[in-house]
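Hi R.,

Quick one: here's the Heme chaperone HemW sequence you asked about.
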Amino acid sequence: MGSALPLGDPAPADGRLPEGTSELSHGHPFGVYVHVPFCRVRCGYCDFNTYTSSELRGAKQVDYSGQAILEVEFAARVLAESQIAPRPVSTVFFGGGTPTLLPTHQLIEMLRAVDDAWGLATGVEVTTEANPDSVDARYLADLAAAGFTRVSFGMQSAVPHVLQTLDRTHDPERVPQVVGWARDAGLQVSLDLIYGTPGETLDDWSRSVDSALAMAPDHLSAYALIVEQGTKLARQIRSGVYPEPDDDLEADMYELVDARLDAAGYEWYEVSNWSRASVAADSGAAPGSSAGPRPDALTGPATPATEFRSRHNLAYWQGHDWWGIGPGAHSHIGGTRWWNVKHPAAYADRILAGVSPAAGRETPGADSREIERVLLLARIRSGLTIDSLAPEARREVAGLIADELINAKAAFAGSIELTLRGRLLADAVVRRLT
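And here's the predicted structure, written out as tokens:
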């Protein structure tokens, strides 16, 4: 059911944000994250705030969309009362859990509530995560018709024994089928992969990467497995059922996926994320998509897809504003952060009582904000400018070039861009810049 929430200051019941938040928020794009905390089964490696039916204890999945809509309405009031200038929503992301366990009409109702509260920006990106076994062609077509633009499938691996170790239940042979359905619906497609699973070989990983590339996704994420304490997988490793992940093997796996994606024409834009290159606004449908421009039921006539990076995730790394809806969801507005109570039953109690579901909040000081800014922006390709660094950090740039951790050409042009070696040692680069 997820790791413990962070410590912080008490959050006011009315949700009112601190004075000065509106000034710090001014000019920042605004996104919305909707957490859907339900899963059919708990994967052995998962530490997210998710619940199977036996773990809900007093909460009902069928009631959830109505509760989330109440938080959207609560959020709109709080932002207005906190003097935050109204902004249309640039990105909406439904994550989990498995959002597509809910019927389509509930996801669509939540999206419409966001539109009613703030309006959706022209060209809004609307993403849902999905398990390959949780959708069919009609489900994806209904989402696309209602304004969803992107689906992120949790593929994880193409190798059955790796999926079994992760407790993933989908058939790897189904992934190409659901990708085809998504393309037929006009949705952009992202695939999520995990490497470093105990027992996974470099050949296994190569097979998974090649399988993903054969589907020509618009976007691909590859994350090293993190063995979180308290998970089933951590207990299995501790008892000797599986070996510890091998850091050297994981580095080889990262180098493999980067090389294969680069050769296939994908660009890395964040340490764990690659996408197709952007296309001109007048060039029609996205490469690999069978669908051309389509009307958007929520925002009017759509323009052709020109951006294949996850704009929602970029907003996190760039320090934009977002409101997180749902149990355990985190939010950030104008430098203030807060997080909701974790359990769906506790969340429902607060929402139905008309009070903030926040469990705590914090407003980091200037030093903490700077460390976080560097930590996040350094992960983005050319996301961190050298002239924005403190003088002592700028003096590290020459050494980082000499150590082949950052790209010399990019540095001479004024930005920090990690080399392949630098991406493998990203934490070390950040330590030298903060």
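The domain at 21-324 is CATH 3.20.20.70 (TIM Barrel).

Cheers,
M.
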